[in-house]
Amino acid sequence: MALASLAAAASLLPAAAARSRVSLARCRGMASSSSPSAAAGASAAARVGVVQMTSVGDLDANYATCSRLAKEAASSGVKFLCFPEVFSFISSKDGESIKIAEPLDGPIMQRYCSLAKESSMWLSLGGFQEKGPDDSHQYNTHVLIDDSGEIRSSYRKIHLFDVDVPGNMVYKESRFTTAGDTVVAVDSPFGRLGLTVCYDLRFPELYQCLRFKHRAQVLLVPSAFTKVTGEAHWEILLRARAIETQCYVIAAAQAGKHNEKRESYGDSIIIDPWGTVIARLPDRLSTGFAVADVDLSKVEAVRTKMPISEHRKFDSVWKTSSL
Fold first, then answer.
1. GO MF annotations for this entry (predicted)?
2. What domains can be seen in the chain, in order of their start residue?
3. Which of the residues 79, 82, 130, 157 is marked catalytic?
4. Of the residues 79, 82, 85, 209, which is catalytic?
5. Rounded to an integer, what distance in angstroms lies between the CA atom of residue 79 and that of residue 145?
6. Is there a catalytic annotation at residue 213?
7. 184, 18 contact by CB (below 8 A)
8. Residue 157 catalytic?
9. Which of 30, 72, 88, 185 has the smallest number of Cβ neighbours within 10 A?
10. Ranges in the chain, pLDDT < 70
């Protein structure tokens, strides 16, 4: 494509600034009734907010922070507010998160449903400790609540963080968490949303599936990245996901020291479909939120100027060879 055409696409973007559940293995499922070009009922532009916070091992304290931020965001005209992974609770001792884990109709999540209704705001709540299949496991669940306080969709984190980060803690999420096996995209007034959680970010095939199989326009990445991995890869990975899928990316992040054992990188950001960061907090440690307008016409403009969906070959049979 000519450079002039690419420049034209870039000029359309700010310079600075129904549900579907499918098998991951096959990346397919129920057909959606929504239009392929845009989510049903989605407005051309909508004000969204991305939260940065430092959750602790106190459910009430974390809720007080979330409630305050939701009310402040609503006063700023935000209609969709995205919270980070483990927004409601971060344990300081082994086994604590299992003890507080609840089903989605339990009192913890219902409290947040009431918050959404009271604030007349959609909420993205990433990384909730949902009660698992047995007493020793939970699910790491991303929950989407609408402005009437109803749970619209939920996604159980597929890729679990089992790593030994150099210079940091050894972490084995699978020891107490059961992985999900379902890709989730859902229509909303803010576009078609693709739900993910934290470590999923390192697996581009999930985001390709959300974009090309399930027509996502906005990708949600609530996270609690470690300081070491965040410094190295956080923004790079997020911008890559935005560029390769031509989607908005909203990435809410935990920040700072939660306890003596755990520290998160921070840097909550919103990225447009051209890969430009259009909103972020002034620093990586403060509690607050950043605001941006998500304009679906810019998604379509980028995809029209650079039609990668027409050029991709992954749905074809490829010839392979080995030496």
1. hydrolase activity, acting on carbon-nitrogen (but not peptide) bonds, in linear amides
2. 45-309 (3.60.110.10)
3. 157
4. 85
5. 12
6. no
7. no
8. yes
9. 30
10. 1-44, 165, 167-169, 314-323
Residue-wise burial string across 278-308, b where 16 or more C-beta atoms lie within 10 A, e elsewhere: bbbbeebeebbbbbbbbbbebbbbbbebbee
- Considering 198, 209, 298, 305, which one is annotated as catalytic? 198
Distance from C-alpha of 127 to C-alpha of 238, rounded to nearest angstrom = 18
Model pLDDT for residues 266-299, shown as the tens digit of each residue: 999 999 999 999 999 999 999 999 999 999 999 9
Whether 231 sits among the annotated catalytic residues: the reply is: no
The tokens describing 26, both together, are 């096959």
CA distance 202 to 205: 9
Asked if residues 249 and 241 have their Cβ atoms less than 8 Å apart, the reply is yes
Nearest-angstrom CA–CA distance, 80 and 65: 17
In this prediction the pTM is: 0.87
Q: Are 52 and 292 in contact (CB under 8 A)?
A: no
Q: Is the dihedral of CA 58, 64, 65, 67 positive or negative?
A: positive
Please report where in the chains the tokens 């884990």 appear, as a residue.
101
- Contact between residue 166 and residue 125 where contact means Cβ atoms under 8 Å apart: no
The partner residues of 129 in beta bridges, in order of sequence, read: 140
Token digits of residue 74:
């609503």
Instruction: Name which of 149, 147, 139 is nearest 181 in CA terms.
Output: 139
